[in-house]
Amino acid sequence: MFLSVFDMFKIGIGPSSSHTMGPMVAASRFLDHLRGLSFSVAGLRASLHGSLAFTGVGHATDRAVILGLAGFTPEDYDAARAEQVLAQITASGQIDAAGLGTLTFAPKTDLIFDYDTKLAGHANGLRLMATDRQGDVIAQEIYYSIGGGFVVTEGELTAPPRKSDADYPYPFETAAQMLAMARDSGKSIAAMKRANELATRSPVALDQGMRRIWQVMNDCIDRGMRAEGILPGGLQVRRRAAAIHAALEAERGLNMNAPHTINDWISVYAMAVNEENAAGGQVVTAPTNGAAGVVPATIRYWLDHVPGANEARVGEFLLTAAAIGGLVKHNASISGAECGCQAEVGSAAAMAAAGLAAVLGGTPEQVENAAEIALEHHLGMTCDPVKGLVQVPCIERNGLGAIKAISAASLALRGDGTHFMPLDNCIEAMRQTGADMSEKYKETALGGLAVNVPNC
Ligand code: SF4
C-alpha cells in the first residue's frame, strides 16, 4: 500500500484536488494515451459524471479538463496563459495538442455534464474521447478522480500495485502493524516512513522535495494573509484572512489578548490557504485541496507560537502526517465524494495531529492516539459545499480542523499512548459511515448547507 509523502502532499491548483486537479491530470494522461496510438485523431470530447457533473461548475472542472486537453498540468500551471488559451479554444473550437496537431473541440458541445449516468467505479468519473473527421468516437478512456489529485483508469482501479510491499523496509498497512514495527525497530513513525521513501529516491531528493512542499504551503499562507477582495463563483464571499491577520498583528504586545486568541491565529493560517484555494491559486493537497489548510496551519502554529520549534524538523512532521494519511486512504478514503468531509478535513486533522505530536516528542503510541482523537471527532461530517464551491463551509472548516488537530495532539501527549479506541477501528468507522451516508452529503451540493442558503 506504499503511498509516498509526495502522493499525500502534491503541489497543485485550487479549488479542488478531486474536481480540478484530478480531471486536469486525467486529460493530460489522455493526451499521452493518444500519442501512443498508431492512428491519428481529429477531435476531442469529454463527459463528466456523478459528483463531477453535479459540482463541476463550482469546482471549475470544465476549465480543468479543457486546459488539461490543451497540455496544462497542475504542477506548472500558469494562470495568465490559461486565460488566453481558454479564450482561444472557445473562439476557435479547436485545441492545439502537442504531438497530436490541431483537434476540434467546442467547449459548449464537446464537454457534457452528464447528470444521469453515474460511472460504476467511483463517484468522480469522466469519459474522455477522441473522434475521427466524421465525429465518430475512435478512442476513449474512463478516468476516476479518487481524491487528493489521484487519478486512475478503469483498469487501474482493480489492478494490483506495481511495486510490492516487500520492496519497502516497513510495509505497514494498518496502524497496529505500524506500532508493532515501531516497537520492534525502536524507530519513530517518521523514521520508518523515511526508510520507506528512500527505497525509491535519494535522501537529497527526499529532503529537497519536502522543503519545496513546505515552501509552497508557507508561501500560500503568506499570500492568503495579504490578499483581499471577493472570491470567484458568485457567492460574494469576501476574503477575511488579511483583515483578521492585520487585527491580530495590531494586538500583538498590547497585553489585552484573551488566551483563546491563539485559535484566531490558527484559523487565519488555515483560512488564508483555503481562500487562496478557492481563488484557484497554488496550494499543496494535504491530503486534498478542500482540506489543504489544516496541515500548513498546524505547522505554522508550531513554528510561530511554540517555543523550541525548528523549521529543520518540518520534514519529520510531513513524514508522520503522510504515514497517517496513507493509512486512511488505504483503509477508507480521503475523498469527500466518497465518504463526506470526515474523509477530507477529518483525515487532514488526523494527519496534522500526528505530525504535531511527533515533533513535540510524542512516542509512536501517542502519535497514533493523537491521530485517532482528531479523526474520531470528525466522524459523520458531511460534504455539502454551497453552490459546489469550495468556500462555505470549507474555508472556516479548515481553521476548526486545525484547532481540533492541535487539541488532539495536546491531549494525546498528556497520556501515555494507551487509549480505548484504536486508530484502525476509527478509520473503519469512518469508512462504514461514509458508505452509509446519503449521496446528498457527498460533494453533490444536493443537501445540507448547500440547500439551506438564505435568500438575500
Ligand atoms: S465540505 Fe469538506 S469535503 Fe466538501 S468540498 Fe468542503 S472541505 Fe471538501
UniProtKB/TrEMBL annotation:
Residues 4-155 form the Serine dehydratase beta chain domain. Its cofactor is [4Fe-4S] cluster. It comes from the Bacteria. It catalyses: L-serine = pyruvate + NH4(+). Pathway: Carbohydrate biosynthesis; gluconeogenesis. Its EC number is 4.3.1.17. Keywords: 4Fe-4S, Gluconeogenesis, Iron, Iron-sulfur, Lyase, Metal-binding. Residues 186-450 form the Serine dehydratase-like alpha subunit domain. Pfam families: SDH_alpha, SDH_beta. GO terms for molecular function: 4 iron, 4 sulfur cluster binding; L-serine ammonia-lyase activity; metal ion binding. GO terms for biological process: amino acid catabolic process; gluconeogenesis. Belongs to the iron-sulfur dependent L-serine dehydratase family. This is L-serine dehydratase. It comes from Roseinatronobacter thiooxidans.
